[in-house]
Design goal:
homodimer; 299 residues; eight-stranded parallel barrel
Amino acid sequence: MNRITELFGIAHPIIAGGMVWCSGWRLASAVSNYGGLGLIGAGSMHPDNLIHHIRSCREATDKPFGVNVPLLYPQIDELMRILVQEKVKIVFTSAGSPKKWTPFLKEHGITVCHVVSSSLFAKKCEEAGVDAVVAEGFEAGGHNGREETTTLCLIPAVREATSLPLIAAGGIALKCQVEAVKALGAEGVQIGTRFALCKESSAHENFKRHCMGLAEGGTRLLLKKLSPTRLAEGEFMKRVAEMEERGATKEELSEFLGKGRAKRGIFEGDLQEGEIEIGQICNMIKEPETVEEIFASLV
Amino acid sequence: MNRITELFGIAHPIIAGGMVWCSGWRLASAVSNYGGLGLIGAGSMHPDNLIHHIRSCREATDKPFGVNVPLLYPQIDELMRILVQEKVKIVFTSAGSPKKWTPFLKEHGITVCHVVSSSLFAKKCEEAGVDAVVAEGFEAGGHNGREETTTLCLIPAVREATSLPLIAAGGIALKCQVEAVKALGAEGVQIGTRFALCKESSAHENFKRHCMGLAEGGTRLLLKKLSPTRLAEGEFMKRVAEMEERGATKEELSEFLGKGRAKRGIFEGDLQEGEIEIGQICNMIKEPETVEEIFASLV
């Protein structure tokens, strides 16, 4: 038992990241059923679909689970209303200021965690009344901090900056890494990549197979002129890298990116046109696993 | 006692990186005197100067010390001849293939360690007959791997790839970080930044003060078209970043870089024209320290 397991009422301080196109009710409920905290990734869901996932998750587990909300979500007001209406108890917010929505969520009795990539923002979380902070390093897949601070450097800095319960994220997939971030002062871990590639993840099989086949060094942090994003090797990354090498502007990159690229890559498994987002540690995941197997190897 | 302390005949498995313009005989002998392994950084020394540093180090300590040799060194044959002639017992090689010089050094009874940024090269070290491998992550200052693998992700991969004694490097300055990389499977640590900024380092006071004043996120990995290098915020980095943003070619960058930039920045303390190289963890080092104080906090 520590502050993280107490805060969420869970057995193990292991949280499955709420990842776009991966974290539906199936993954979230499985993680919660094995004693971790499952999160539904609202970032890729239409409001109606989010309601469906929350209700299905509740049917599939009687354990605590949560919802991850990127604060840049276009219909954010409607989404927040749904969280309250559906009586969600735990919300992880990311990609935005913790000041805007934390008071609203807390007023409705919701436990709030916020994802940060610097100790400066960790302090802002404390001021905003957030209950726990997730500090995520450069290794993480998908959208990422501009500072490029790695988990090894970030966790001691955040530990020093705030007394809030601290969850480490970014590059954590193995038991030895869970032990390592504990030594750095983290009280829990948020694991993305390993759960994104497991059997209960709603990502497409092509995506999972592609990511499990990547060698060490098979991801890169690109799109820094828009929002830094860790991409996996492949056609999309190659084209982005070429554009950036020749100094493509923000506008050119934004036009090339267009809409729905991540859905195409992760959910529809289009390895040619789709955007493939995954964490740096994917090279250590070589076989399809179930959530049960993941917990057996970590706990 | 472990394989690293036995291999070098030292009390603590703590190695001070052999850093250009920082690691002269003064720093190396102090580290060895406190029970770690001090390294002289040959990369920034003319052959005659290297002889001077080796002899001065031997006068200042009767404990084991070593020399770090970047294999791109222009007069590498002469330098290798000096290492043998001066009866250096431990050599750390970096920035090149371990196959070229390891047999020569081993024939002369020298213990050889090689610095890698991937498990692929760690395996090559094993084939080349290297005695121990230093695996250095993306967090490290100065020249850095193209794969951008962080220490947290790199160490478990290298641990899996080779049974060689393993030293972790990159982003390690604090005791909790030493514990963390031990959990990942490292048997020793190589610490750069914290020793580069200590009182015995031969770097200029301007450089040390500048780096100790940097906030979290105050370094960036740039010059990727030449050789990826972690630079500290300041005039030089600003100009490099601007050039890269507009897609400057390798040739343009190389011409801008010119010669002697690192000497100007690190050794002469020219914060306008000089190149300032330091690791990502510099924000955690706030006060000038002695080697004695560093060992007291780590051991």
